[in-house]
Amino acid sequence: MELNVQIDHVHLVVKVPPKLSISKLMGALKGKIALKLFSKYPYLRKNKLWGNHFWQRGYFVDSVGINEEIIRRYVRHQEKQERREQAQLSMDIAPL
């Protein structure tokens, strides 16, 4: 499993047997995580920051196949890459 949690999204690589419903897996995963976070950080629920929903309704799923190691590396290093891109963007638009 590869996991990368960022401020506004999560990248996750998991192996799922073909007979398991992806939508049920995502519902269970998002539900369990939200309950744990609401339990550990009660202010998240009290403030109703997201209309009492922790996750957005959607998600993206793709099969990995022969590119699994490339995808795993991407997930592992995504945050570093986004920081570099953000820093470059900041430098490009900085006033002279």
UniProtKB/TrEMBL annotation:
Question: Which domain of life does the UniProt lineage start with?
Answer: Bacteria
Residue ranges of domain Transposase IS200-like in the record: 1-78
List the Gene3D superfamilies hit by this protein, alphabetically.
Answer: Transposase IS200-like
A molecular function annotated in GO for this UniProt entry is: DNA binding
Output one GO BP term. DNA transposition
PANTHER family xref list:
TRANSPOSASE FOR INSERTION SEQUENCE ELEMENT IS200 (PTHR33360:SF2)
Q: What is the name listed in the Swiss-Prot or TrEMBL entry for this protein?
A: IS1004 transposase
